[in-house]
Amino acid sequence: MSLARQIAAFAVEARPTEAAYGVMAQSLYDWMVCGMAGASEPVAAIMRAQALADGGSAQAVMFGGGHVPARAAALANGTISHALDYDDTHFAHIGHLSVGILPAAIACARKDGAGLLDAACIGFEVATRVGLWVGRGHYQAGFHQTATAGAFGATAAVARLRGLDAEQAAHALGLATTRAAGLKSQFGTMGKPMNAGLAAECGVICADLAARGFLSSPEALDGPQGFGPTHAGEAQAIAWDGLGDIWKMTEVSHKLHACCHGLHAMIEALSALETSPERVERVEITTHPRWLSVCNQPAPDTGLGAKFSYAHVAGMVLHGWNTADIDSFSDACAQDATLVAFRDKVRVVAHDSLAETEARVRLDLTDGTQLSGQHDLMAAQDTDQKWQALRRKGAALLGEREAQLWEAVNPEGVPDLEALSELMQMESV
Amino acid sequence: MSLARQIAAFAVEARPTEAAYGVMAQSLYDWMVCGMAGASEPVAAIMRAQALADGGSAQAVMFGGGHVPARAAALANGTISHALDYDDTHFAHIGHLSVGILPAAIACARKDGAGLLDAACIGFEVATRVGLWVGRGHYQAGFHQTATAGAFGATAAVARLRGLDAEQAAHALGLATTRAAGLKSQFGTMGKPMNAGLAAECGVICADLAARGFLSSPEALDGPQGFGPTHAGEAQAIAWDGLGDIWKMTEVSHKLHACCHGLHAMIEALSALETSPERVERVEITTHPRWLSVCNQPAPDTGLGAKFSYAHVAGMVLHGWNTADIDSFSDACAQDATLVAFRDKVRVVAHDSLAETEARVRLDLTDGTQLSGQHDLMAAQDTDQKWQALRRKGAALLGEREAQLWEAVNPEGVPDLEALSELMQMESV
After folding, report:
1. ipTM score of the complex?
2. Cys-Cys link to B176, which of A150, B155, B194, B329 (CB 3.0-4.6 A)?
3. Residue B371 C-alpha, separation from nearest chain A C-alpha, in angstroms
4. Which of B342, B366, B71 is nearest to B211 (CA)?
5. pLDDT per residue over B130-145, tens digit each?
6. Do B54 and A56 touch (CB under 8 A)?
7. Any idea which fold B261-376 has?
């Protein structure tokens, strides 16, 4: 049976586990935070203006306001919610899950909160596994899993929400093979968040056309000259092990700090140590070697540069700056005399015995004592602690609206889609 | 200067030659024929229903009726006009030009017929050259130039029509790099015509977003991990020689017979010979070897099979069947006793001294005389003869509506866009 047909059967039948629902509540909350905060970005205004000029049936809402067809909302909201690049990451999938899939699912969920959760879990799982299947080779060649694998996830999610049968879902996925696209060479431009929008848009249009009887080639994912073979796919068969039983999407990681993901394990490890910055004589950070070329700027002088600096961010943490708040990473922060002076105390070393998601820290205090800690972003985290951290981020980005969002997401039950819709439509702050 | 910036400068400034306008009139006429005839195909009904369900601003019309936003019309009309696979081909570009570009251009041309011609020529030229630039390697890897190179052509065309400046056009093309997609593995399904629709849709949305200030990476066509390098592009620098002076799009070829393109040179060569089928004892067809595995079915028993059979179609031509008419290729035709018997008289041989677009034919008559002929589809053709052939095709597909279409296209002047719009909206016959 072709891969698209296997995925289609899964999309139609799968029942997510409690663990999957639990992670999905976090991703839904976190995605809403990113979308609401992203609604004031310049690219958001462009996407809304274009969608509103086209107009059409009021099927769904956009972040920042406006009712448009589901397809248009998916494109706009995927782009808007990825604009800050502060959304969730699945390291094995090599990409962002929520921004490609939730915009499609929420645009098609109407008032069915339980259906949204099912479809979103399924979409996340399909995107994760397609991302694993095409593998690192796909990413290294220049493709952006967020967009490409995301398109299949979004298609699976909408297929479930629209009630497609397995045959229709296979044609929807087959059609997605010829539409899925997205390049890393857009990084650093508005084209990067648009890649997430492309995935979401692809899901809506392919599933909707299949529901109307559109026939494609369900062999065109893994078959000859299919999406995988044409897009530097590694065809990792292991990616499909346990489909339906094991939910790999539960390994999604939420970004709790408004800086490069390579710094996050260090931030968590330092945050757990109790001391005051005046007592610190020396800081040693041990990290995986891959990050040295990514986020080890020794002397940044802009807020953007600070987001990629172990030395600067270590000082921010120890001096009590709120690293969850985007506004913390300002030029003023990068030039803050205390933080600039503190950088000299920080030493960064690399060791490949660490996982990429891991960091070790050691503080030498002026009184001769040592404090040390370790953190791995993949380590199981207490759910309450995780929610506290997510809500700190939410409060930093949304202010008073955070409480409404928390209530609307309703993590212990089913999300209130009308309340979420109202929050999405709020004018950006 | 990056390739996208060079193309952008061309899109903004270029002035097509008289020869380009002349070919464009033929392609516009031929595309309208294919779209109007394709409007009754099943995929056309699906595309219209989806676009009408989404609704929106009445910016453009669809084949078969319905006003929708330009983006939606481009997607629908690209798909509908390619549904019969009877539209123009550019052999060097390795794809179909009109179906990817004209749906975008006509949806954005409003009432400016002269502007439509300029933009369409420019779009054709860009698509042709991008197709040459990515080359045969791109096609052999599994990509469909109609969709991929077509997307850049459509973007250039809409950029011209919307009056973008060179900087905006470069960002539109840069954005198209991350959206352009389309696989050959959809051939034989509705996904194939959809590939043309994807190109046209890409053009409208990328140019419109760039007009609103969207910033992408104009380096992402030929730069590191750009569209070319990631999509098995050959980077044929020669593709860009003489851009602005030489109009390679003028080499586009129009399909005058409703069967595999590999049979067309034979049909033309046989049609020029004057005899009656009863006098023919033996037919010898010489063709390029590549066609033997494509269209040399010795004994087809369906209309579809007949479209890929030298032996059967040779008999059709000599017995006076109208090979321009899609309805000629019926199961009844494939099983016609006279034609089936005639196949035994036909012998097909291959020789690689012929061009792929060339055929030689020889008839041995019962009285011992021989008739022979040759045709190359690339040979310069008298304009009047070409128009006569195109209009025979138009009449075969459209019946009485052909005369209205001829008047609306107005080959010696500027097309009447209101009249074309009315023809597009007619219910399919």
Report:
1. 0.94
2. B155
3. 44
4. B71
5. 999 999 999 999 999 9
6. yes
7. 60s Ribosomal Protein L30; Chain: A; (3.30.1330)
